[in-house]
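Ticket reopened. Same input as before:
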Amino acid sequence: MIEWFEDLSLGMRFKSESVKISEDEIKQFAAKFDPQPFHLDDEAAQKTIFKGLAASGWHTAAIAMNLAVQIRPFGPHPLIGLGVDGLRWMLPVRPGDILHLEGEVVGLTPSRTSLRASLW
Amino acid sequence: MIEWFEDLSLGMRFKSESVKISEDEIKQFAAKFDPQPFHLDDEAAQKTIFKGLAASGWHTAAIAMNLAVQIRPFGPHPLIGLGVDGLRWMLPVRPGDILHLEGEVVGLTPSRTSLRASLW
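Engineering reply: fixed in the latest deploy. New output:
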């Protein structure tokens, strides 16, 4: 179990369980946060470059966050992000697609403060 | 009205309406996508580095997407993201906070394909 900073090492990998994404979930997220035809309605989406319903990229990102929280890569410590770089939406996520998350420790920077939390 | 690529110019700015974020919305998003104490429960959040309920950063990002869609910065053309760089969560977003989005055209790259969409 990873409990302390010293328990982490470069190259350490994490892999989440898989989740299946449904058409309803795609539409519900889109209605609130990304109301564009290709995220809301399959028929309308057929006429767009997506050629069918696709999840909002922010929905996929939020699902990834949830999977990260389930993994608990830092044991009892919270997962708090400072920001995002290098996020790329490579392929549309479709209803019925099964997603999982993989992570790797690519850097280790000791906190300069006494902040007792894991920032990632 | 911005309808074509040629209608855009460097330095062009966009500003959205404002939205107020509620405690319920923060909790609902967190329950689905970022179930950690500081996003779910104000009392539990008091004992964390946030010192009170704060929205998931992914929630704030999703709200920003919705505001961007409302602005319609590219007129009738869709808003499709290729990815994210340089996103930074600088301050916690609290219940009752009022958010708006500001954007600026900082680069213009003509598509190399016949893709009829605005990628941003």
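The beta strands of chain A are 13-15, 19-20, 79-80, 83-84, 87-88, 98-99, 102-104, 118-119. DSSP finds four helices and eight strands in chain A. Please confirm and we'll close it.
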